[in-house]
Amino acid sequence: MLVYTIRRLFQTIPVIIGVTLVVFFMMHLIPGDPAQIIAGERADEAQVEQMRDRLGLNDPYYVQYTRFVTDAAQGDLGNSVRSGRAVSSEIGARFWITVELAFYSTLLSIFIGLIAGIVSATRRNSFLDMFIMIFALFGLSMPNFWLGLMLIQYFALNFDWLPVSGWGSPQQLLLPVITLGTAGAAIIARMTRSSMLEVIHQDYIRTARAKGVKERYVIYKHALRNALIPVVTVVGLQFGVLLGGAVLTETVFAINGLGRFVVEAIRMRDFPIVQGSVLVLAMLFVFVNFLVDISYRVLNKRIELD
Amino acid sequence: MGNPKTIIDVNELQTSFFTSKGEVKAVDGVSFDVPSGKTLGIVGESGSGKSITSLSIMRLLEDPGKIKGGKITFQGEDLLSKSESEMRRIRGNRISMIFQEPMTSLNPVFTIGDQIAESYMIHEGLSKKEALKKSLGMLELVGIPSPKDRLKAYPHELSGGMRQRAMIAIALACNPELLIADEPTTALDVTIQAQILRLINNLQEELGMSMMLITHDLGVVAETCDYVAVMYAGKIVEYADVETLFKSPKHPYTVGLLKSLPRHDIDQDELEVIKGMVPRPDQLPQGCRFAPRCPFARDLCRDHLPALDNIDDKNQVRCWIYSEEWDGPEVNVQDDYGTAQSKQS
């Protein structure tokens, strides 16, 4: 297990290098000259050239890249063009809000998705199964900003049960987490259902029944453990979708998270902020998928890394 | 069959699958018993209903399969009237089952030790620690080398033969009175087959269990069984003790099966085969189910289903040839089979 973890950790290195490369070149490929933007529209040619020098934009790409990576490794992601403050401190607090939002939403979608999927699978073709699957279809098809607006309309405005916006108190968490977690819950429910239905007809399930195992344990011990393997993969991938969705959800609920911050930074052409945020979010995604692979191995001992 | 001490008595068992296209009779009025401490072989081609018979005894049929009628008496208790929780206390405890596919019959995410220990924890209420200790003993009993390490191994770390040994350990953990082995060696290499059969035989003697061995392999029957029931298309067509069956088979199907075995004692250019195929259970012929493939079949056979009758002390046969109604020329099935078959086509 330890060997597996270490080897899997090493496998993230090329991914991280790839991420830094993409983020680095993204800055050079998108239209607009960062030096021009930082120096301001009214700056003359000499000033822009001076800025370019200061930013190191005249150095060869590999020098710039190495500098970018070594700085980033030390937590230095440059300074915001607009505020002039360090990108790392600008991102810091907002990043944790987004992580919190994504974390709770993932928990919610796993919790609801698993229960709904298992119930659906064990009562296949029943009324309850149909109800859950139709509900899941809705959950999947609803754009989450719309769901967010509807939740605000009913639960915050009409009934006045929960606050309209903000972040921090448990009441404030509820609506954004539901908004962001619903699609994931729907996907996990459908995945769990089909995975369970497949597992339930395996020979080893019959063996368990032939041993005299109670039906409840047949389902929750013998079947679920196997059925979870593909579901875990979906949870990992879903996390990336969630980070994207966080942008909209944070906007709808006026949450001061990283998602909304990035969107603003893009609009303001605040390149260092965009660069730093994308890097941090990508790293988070890599980390979550690392965790997923580890839990994958815990569930399924057959997995070996080559 | 009338043996004084029988462990299980199956009487007119009927099991059907209720599909959208209608009822499919997989087991249609099957009766047999297993004398205490003996082995009954149930032989038949795939689709003859032999596996469904064993799943019916365990009451482990999956939808849309249902036991429609008949009676299964195990140690004087009526299995078909038991509740699900009563059945659970019997399964894996008093009646155990070994399945055909050792590669897929063990749960891939639990260790071998956990899977054996589960039986002890369910049926004997042992703690995990005690159960694992007894599981170690079982692994030794079924001859798995370095059992201590195997206890912590996962199924994928074992070979097919070792997995089947582990399956046997699970099945025999609680010392069952009856073991149902459904094609236990079919999926294994020939050399391993012999080892596993010998193991099952030895353990049966050692533990004094009764056994039902389901197989399509007459070689396996000859080596292991005391009695044999030959099944064809959901019905038993012949029942005898093993010696009688091999020496003087009576039913044309049994004779055909025996003739299709490869032989060492004579030179054979080609193996004999029974022409045609087992009828699909949803398209059963009206009369004798073997009639379409039988070289002796007459109109009587095609129109009317014969009963399973004692024809002497030893054989029970479901065939018109041995009845008073038989209107054809006198035949000796065993001797005339070859000539009749060559005329058939």
From TrEMBL, chain A:
Coiled coil: none annotated. The chain crosses the membrane at residues 12-30, 101-119, 131-153, 173-192, 227-253, 273-292. It is found in: Cell membrane. Keywords: Cell membrane, Ion transport, Membrane, Nickel, Nickel transport, Transmembrane, Transmembrane helix, Transport. One of its GO terms (molecular function) is nickel cation transmembrane transporter activity. Residues 95-292 form the ABC transmembrane type-1 domain. The complex is composed of two ATP-binding proteins (NikD and NikE), two transmembrane proteins (NikB and NikC) and a solute-binding protein (NikA). This is Nickel import system permease protein NikB. It comes from Salipaludibacillus aurantiacus.
TrEMBL record, chain B:
GO terms for molecular function: ATP binding; ATP hydrolysis activity. Pfam families: ABC_tran, oligo_HPY. It is a peripheral membrane protein. InterPro entries: AAA+_ATPase, ABC_Ni/Peptide_Import, ABC_transporter-like_ATP-bd, ABC_transporter-like_CS, Oligopep_ABC_C, P-loop_NTPase. PROSITE patterns: ABC_TRANSPORTER_1, ABC_TRANSPORTER_2. It is found in: Cell membrane. NCBIfam families: oligo_HPY. Belongs to the ABC transporter superfamily. This is Peptide/nickel transport system ATP-binding protein.
